[in-house]
From TrEMBL:
SUPFAM superfamilies: SufE/NifU. Residues 10-128 form the NIF system FeS cluster assembly NifU N-terminal domain. GO terms for molecular function: iron ion binding; iron-sulfur cluster binding. Gene3D superfamilies: 3.90.1010.10. It holds the Pfam family NifU_N. PANTHER family: IRON-SULFUR CLUSTER ASSEMBLY ENZYME NIFU HOMOLOG. This is NifU-like protein. Belongs to the NifU family. InterPro entries: NIF_FeS_clus_asmbl_NifU_N. GO terms for biological process: iron-sulfur cluster assembly. It comes from Filibacter tadaridae.
Length: 145
C-alpha cells in the first residue's frame, strides 16, 4: 500500500471515530470520573470508568474538541475496556511514546490508534491526541505504579 493510500486510510479511520464515536456518553454507576481540558485549543473531556477487581469493565467519554481528541478518546475507550488497569496504563505509555515519535513495542496491538501515528509530526496536536489518555491515567492512579 502506498504512503498516500495509507495516509488516506488513517484519515478515514480518524474521521469515522470522530463522526461515529464509540462509547460516547456517561456511565451512571462509574467509580472513576475525570474531567480534563486542553487550554491551548479548548478540547474538553469527561471520562467515566467502571473499574472492578483491577479490570476496566466499562469506559465512556463525553466532551467537545477537535477530530483528533474525540477520535482518540473513542479509540482509547475501545482499547481499555476489558483490560487490567496495568495493561491499560501500559497502553497509555505506548501510545504516548508513539505520539512522541519514539520506538514502540510491536507486540502491543493498538488497533485503530495506529491511525494517529501521523499526529507526531504536528507537536501542537499531540496534546489533543493524548488528552483522553492522560485523563484515564489520572483516573486509575498511574502515580501508584
Amino acid at each position: 500500500m502506498s504512503i498516500k493510500n495509507l495516509d488516506q486510510l488513517y484519515r478515514s479511520v480518524i474521521m469515522d471515530h470522530y463522526k461515529n464515536p464509540r462509547n460516547k456518553g456517561i456511565i451512571d454507576e462509574s467509580n472513576v470520573t475525570i474531567d480534563m481540558n486542553n487550554p491551548t485549543c479548548g478540547d474538553v473531556i469527561h471520562l467515566t470508568l467502571q473499574v472492578d477487581d483491577g479490570i476496566v469493565k466499562n469506559a465512556k467519554f463525553d466532551g467537545e474538541g477537535c477530530s483528533i481528541s474525540m477520535a482518540s478518546a473513542s479509540m482509547m475507550t475501545q482499547l481499555v475496556i476489558g483490560k487490567k488497569v496495568d495493561e491499560a496504563l501500559q497502553a497509555a505509555h505506548t501510545f504516548s511514546d508513539m505520539m512522541l515519535g519514539k520506538e514502540v513495542d510491536d507486540t502491543m496491538d493498538l488497533g485503530d490508534l495506529e491511525a494517529l501515528t501521523g499526529v507526531s509530526k504536528f507537536p501542537a496536536r499531540i496534546k489533543c491526541a493524548t488528552l483522553a489518555w492522560k485523563a484515564m491515567e489520572k483516573g486509575v492512579g498511574s502515580d501508584s505504579e
